[in-house]
Design a protein that fits this description.
Blueprint lengths: L1 H8 L24 H9 L11 H11 L9 H7 L7 E3 L2 E4 L8 H12 L6 H13 L1 H22 L8 H22 L3 E4 L7 E4 L14
Antiparallel strand pairs: 1-2, 3-4
Helix pairs in contact: 1-2, 3-5, 4-7, 5-7, 6-7, 6-8
Length: about 220
């Protein structure tokens, strides 16, 4: 079936990229190379996305299809999967932003993929751990599943390649974003945020009521 669909679609696929990790033999493995068959059908290797193995990717394509043009954008796709927040707004105030309940098997597969990358040393794994510590595991699974859905949509619909920047890149970008927010808040109160010292690299607030080493520097 996959071979017939590949011929019918007529997508040009280059050489199959090397697997992201060594795939261990499965006791109930199919009689053909699932990863190669999906690559011939889609023209992209979905298993390069962390959390998506060959069999999970095959089930995902079976649920959503190989032509995602029915959804004009990734936002529409994640909304169909009930992975996007459903904002309830009244009087300009957000009352609730919970996701809608859904029995979608595709959404369940993406949630399963999100759980498997929780301990991975990747950008998606760091994203999951950061959200899990802040908003809880259940919400972190939903948010990570949505991110995987967006990556899958862009790969199948637009042919975008997935390149993992690594967990350290995500942590560095997160730290820079937190420092920028602290700088804005300090500036709003008339203070300047400066590094404590070259040896530690931790920021500190310069203000009144500190030790003599701290001096106030009002903004003009």
């Amino acid at each position: 079936m996959l071979k017939e669909l590949s011929i019918r679609r007529g997508r040009e696929a280059g050489p199959l990229p090397s697997p992201r990790r060594r795939i261990s033999p499965h006791p109930n493995a199919l009689a053909f190379d699932v990863r190669a068959a999906l690559f011939a059908l889609l023209g992209k290797d979905l298993t390069q996305i962390h959390g998506l193995g060959p069999y999970l990717a095959l089930k995902l394509i079976a649920e959503c299809g190989d032509d995602l043009s029915a959804w004009s954008s990734a936002k529409h796709f994640t909304s169909w999967l009930c992975l996007a927040p459903s904002n309830r707004i009244s009087g300009g105030k957000v009352l609730s932003s919970r996701t809608r309940r859904s029995g979608s098997r595709a959404a369940a597969l993406l949630r399963l993929a999100a759980v498997t990358i929780g301990r991975a040393d990747t950008a998606l794994g760091a994203f999951y751990r950061r959200l899990s510590a802040r908003i809880g595991k259940a919400n972190a699974v939903t948010a990570t599943a949505r991110k995987i859905a967006v990556l899958s949509y862009n790969a199948v619909r637009h042919g975008m390649e997935y390149v993992d920047p690594g967990a350290s890149f995500y942590e560095t970008r997160y730290r820079a974003r937190v420092i920028d927010n602290l700088n804005r808040r300090a500036k709003a109160f008339g203070f300047v945020l400066q590094p404590k010292g070259a040896d530690t690299g931790h920021p500190r607030f310069l203000g009144i009521g500190q030790s003599q080493a701290l001096e106030r520097r009002p903004l003009l």
